[in-house]
């Protein structure tokens, strides 16, 4: 009788262990699927490097612009199918306050303005039910790839064209990452072809001075970028890559950064976001994308005369185009 009860207990224990093992296996599968569906962050391979060297051509095709401006919109300001020459995915896009004045002031043979079309979304990974948006990793990867590929193709076709890059929010991260590669000599265009870069609300802003760091427009706020505050965090769909440790290298003297105090995307208090508090930090980060400070750079004054961030950036870009070389065309 005792042996029978003992056997029954062993059988029940084995059954419980089997159910537990199945539960753990199911949880692992769910987490793996979560990661796979959310997507990984993929960086483009190294670019062609410094250029053609001593065989550099003395002219370029007549279809090539003297200057190529690249505008990278922020989160919820673009779409994968948007028209790069007539962007309309979000008529209120902050970057239109910068790119439109440039487009209106010059003929297309002087400057071509290309607005990068990409999904430009930021799904909340802890939202239940899911919010139906593309993850940050998927969005950032697509934006980076499209920017990188366009620059590579343009430089192959137009080796004497010079470049102006500008981006806002997620677009600033994308433009800044490509500028970092260019400054290190492995980007899609040579460093000496870049006239300047402006990053508004850059999530990878280090908040530190020193070699390789960008020039701050206006009074620098005390915080750091959200990706720096959350450096090393990796959850489904969101990979926080930290600061650009080597800075912008050869082009650092032409890279500008603008950050409004209180904008958690670029001015996060150093201890406000923590990988140890993933849910709370991600909730704060997701909310920061749409907070009033982050969305009102067209009103954020950066100079004593009342010039706002977008006015400054538009004037900066116009000035670069006015002073850019005029390469011969064939």
Automatic annotation (TrEMBL):
The lineage of its organism: Bacteria, Bacillati, Actinomycetota, Actinomycetes, Mycobacteriales. Residues 76-85 have a biased composition (Polar residues). The chain crosses the membrane at residues 12-37. This is Cutinase family protein. Keywords: Disulfide bond, Hydrolase, Membrane, Serine esterase, Transmembrane, Transmembrane helix. PANTHER family: CUTINASE 4, CUTINASE RV1984C-RELATED-RELATED. InterPro entries: AB_hydrolase_fold, Cutinase/axe. Pfam families: Cutinase (PF01083). Belongs to the cutinase family. It comes from the Bacteria. Residues 47-85 are annotated as: Disordered. It comes from Nocardia flavorosea. GO terms for molecular function: carboxylic ester hydrolase activity.
């Amino acid at each position: 009788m005792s042996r029978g009860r003992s056997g029954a207990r062993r059988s029940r224990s084995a059954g419980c262990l089997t159910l537990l093992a199945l539960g753990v296996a199911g949880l692992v599968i769910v987490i793996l699927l979560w990661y796979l569906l959310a997507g990984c962050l993929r960086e483009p391979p190294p670019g062609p490097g410094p250029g053609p060297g001593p065989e550099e051509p003395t002219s370029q095709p007549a279809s090539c612009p003297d200057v190529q401006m690249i505008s990278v919109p922020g989160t919820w300001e673009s779409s994968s199918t948007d028209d790069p020459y007539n962007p309309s995915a979000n008529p209120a896009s902050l970057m239109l306050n910068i790119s439109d004045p440039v487009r209106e002031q010059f003929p297309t043979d002087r400057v071509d303005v290309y607005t990068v079309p990409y999904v430009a979304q930021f799904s909340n990974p802890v939202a239940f039910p899911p919010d139906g948006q593309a993850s940050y990793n998927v969005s950032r990867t697509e934006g980076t790839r499209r920017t990188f590929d366009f620059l590579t193709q343009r430089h192959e076709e137009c080796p004497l064209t010079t470049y102006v890059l500008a981006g806002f929010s997620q677009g600033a991260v994308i433009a800044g990452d490509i500028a970092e590669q260019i400054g290190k000599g492995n980007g899609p265009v040579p460093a000496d072809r870049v006239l300047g870069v402006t990053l508004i609300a850059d999530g990878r802003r280090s908040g530190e001075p020193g070699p390789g760091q960008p020039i701050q427009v206006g009074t620098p706020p005390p915080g750091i970028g959200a990706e720096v505050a959350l450096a090393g965090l990796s959850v489904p769909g969101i990979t926080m890559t930290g600061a650009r440790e080597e800075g912008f290298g050869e082009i650092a003297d032409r890279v500008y950064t603008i950050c409004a105090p209180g904008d958690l995307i670029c001015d996060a208090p150093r201890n406000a976001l923590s990988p140890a508090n993933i849910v709370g930090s991600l909730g704060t980060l997701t909310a920061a994308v749409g907070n009033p400070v982050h969305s009102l750079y067209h009103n954020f004054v950066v100079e004593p005369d009342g010039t706002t961030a977008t006015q400054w950036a538009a004037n900066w870009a116009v000035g670069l185009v006015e002073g850019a070389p005029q390469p011969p065309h064939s």
